[in-house]
């Protein structure tokens, strides 16, 4: 195995573990330290910690589905998709480092939420942003990783297409 391939694999593993680890550590701290629906205002009320257990997906989508269907749609299928993404990362030597980083963010965040669903029956969400009329639903660091990963992937796709045109 070439040194550059080993370095690449170590970078991928580090990015995956950092995304997954930060998410799981933050959720562990929140589970142990904050009561359900307890609100802790931070940053002049623009950022609030509010612990909720989300049994659905994004914005609680699917929380009312039967448990077996929910397990398939929110854990098994996403786990298969993440496995494909990991294989793509490991075996595609032509992928750029930036795109690999985007996929690592996406996979690390996705794994964090899937692990919650499988081991706890719900995903622990705890961050809420509000600024003027803008506000988010309650989310977690895995969600942040997923969004950052998607933005990186979209950016690399767009810039590649721009270079192909010119």
Describe the structure.
The chain is α+β, with helices and mostly antiparallel strands and 166 residues long. The protein has one domain. It is 63% helix and 14% strand. It is built from four helices and four strands, in the order H-E-E-H-H-E-E-H. Strand 1 and strand 2 (47-54) form a beta hairpin. Helix 1 (3-33) runs parallel beside helix 3 and helix 2 runs antiparallel to helix 3. The chain is globular.
Brief characterization of the structure:
This protein is α+β, with helices and mostly antiparallel strands.
End-to-end Cα distance: 36 Å
How many distinct helices?
Answer: 4
- Radius of gyration, rounded? 18 Å
Strand percentage, roughly? 5-15%
Helix residue percentage: 55-70%
Unreliable runs, pLDDT <50, ≥5 residues? none
Which features does this protein show?
166 residues, alpha+beta, 4 helices, 63% helix
Q: What is the topology?
A:
Elements (H helix, E strand, L loop, with lengths): L2 H31 L5 E4 L4 E8 L12 H25 L5 H24 L2 E9 L2 E2 L5 H25 L1
Antiparallel strand pairs: 1-2, 2-3, 3-4
Helix pairs in contact: 1-3, 2-3, 3-4
């Amino acid at each position: 195995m070439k040194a550059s391939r080993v370095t690449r694999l170590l970078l991928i593993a580090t990015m995956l573990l950092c995304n997954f680890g930060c998410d799981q550590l933050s959720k562990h701290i929140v589970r142990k330290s904050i009561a359900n629906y307890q609100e802790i205002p931070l940053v002049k009320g623009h950022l609030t910690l509010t612990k909720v257990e989300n049994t659905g997906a994004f914005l609680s989508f699917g929380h009312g589905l039967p448990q077996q269907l929910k397990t398939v749609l929110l854990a098994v299928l996403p786990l298969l998709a993440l496995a494909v993404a990991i294989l793509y990362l490991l075996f595609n030597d032509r992928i750029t480092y930036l795109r690999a980083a985007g996929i690592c963010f996406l996979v690390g965040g996705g794994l964090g939420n899937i692990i919650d669903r499988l081991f706890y029956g719900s995903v622990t969400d705890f961050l809420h942003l509000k600024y003027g009329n803008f506000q988010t639903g309650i989310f977690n660091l895995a969600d942040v990783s997923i969004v950052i990963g998607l933005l990186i992937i979209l950016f690399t796709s767009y810039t590649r297409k721009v270079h192909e045109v010119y």
